[in-house]
Design brief:
The chain is 8% helix and 54% strand. A twelve-stranded antiparallel β-barrel has the order 1-2-3-4-5-6-7-8-9-10-11-12.
Length: 294
């Protein structure tokens, strides 16, 4: 009898701990409108679709002078599987443009392909707020709920891994890049009082190839209300093939608990090349999540 009670007690504790470590939210949790990845997953049995069509304008000077104009789309499909902390995903960018060389003998090259296509997974290792019951809101003080909490300086941490697929003779990759190559990522997220969220990503792309990019992404968002959010983001890219520092600003509007619209502006501060892009995006989820019974 004692043994049965012990096993029953352990089973209850395990179930409670899984529920306290849940990733699921009542409203959609999108990575858009920025390009950083949240440390949190979408939740089990949730299928989420994110897409962002954009127009792009690039100009390089003074050495190799050319202009690029076209359009494309960022996309992601995310699915929560087995555990609240685990998320499977497919994400990428497809672009169609024209590259015109500005010389005495001007030439034009029409291009279209995936700039990136990755199949991967993300798993949350640590959530500082998993025992939310220990930090209940103060029902008698509005200011107490809005004040800064030192605990918020401890970020949630997730790791991600995936595989790039690059087709042969891709105009958006370095010469000779084709086939499959790995990617790894660390993502952190701080949720501060007053609707502020800070996300960081550190990513190593196409490991072992001649285009092994290192990227960092820092994103700060602020929600003015349950419906409106604005963000600012910086993205650094460094490799032998391409290096840049990009800046983004924009916002999003929540139409319903499962649907979000967004827009963002991207630019840089150099001319090798200069970059200017505008995108409009949407996120939608199919929510089949069910809370585990305690």
């Amino acid at each position: 009898m004692t043994s049965i009670k012990t096993y029953l007690f352990l089973a209850i504790c395990l179930t409670l701990s899984l529920n306290m470590f849940g990733q699921y939210t009542e409203v959609i949790n999108s990575n858009r409108p920025g390009v950083s990845r949240s440390a949190f997953s979408v939740g089990t049995n949730v299928a989420q679709f994110e897409i962002g069509p954009y127009i792009i304008k690039e100009k390089r000077s003074p050495a190799t002078q050319y202009e690029i104009s076209g359009f494309g789309a960022d996309f992601a499909v995310r699915y929560g599987l087995l555990f609240e902390e685990l998320e499977l995903n497919i994400e990428g960018t497809y672009q169609n443009d024209s590259k015109t060389y500005i010389t005495s003998l001007s030439s034009k090259q029409d291009r279209a392909n995936f700039k990136s296509l990755v199949i991967g997974a993300k798993y949350m290792l640590f959530d500082p707020n998993r025992n939310a019951g220990e930090d209940k809101p103060n029902l008698y003080s509005y200011h107490a709920n809005k004040k800064f909490k030192w605990k918020s300086l401890i970020p949630a941490v997730a790791i991600g891994a995936g595989m790039h697929y690059d087709s042969k003779n891709n105009p958006y990759t370095a010469p000779g890049i084709e086939g499959i190559s790995p990617r790894v990522m660390i993502a952190t997220q701080n949720n501060f009082a007053g609707g502020w969220v800070f996300v960081t990503n550190f990513i190593k792309e196409r490991i072992g190839t001649d285009q092994s990019d290192f990227q960092y992404i820092l994103t700060l968002t602020h929600s003015f209300s349950p419906k409106w959010v604005v963000f600012a983001e910086t993205q650094g890219i460094k490799s032998d093939f391409y290096a840049d520092n990009l800046f983004r600003f924009g916002g999003a509007y929540l139409f319903g608990k499962d649907f979000q619209l967004d827009t963002a502006l991207t630019f840089n501060t150099k001319d090798t090349p200069s970059v200017f892009s505008v995108n409009f995006g949407a996120s939608y989820r199919l929510d089949f999540h069910k809370d585990k019974e305690q």
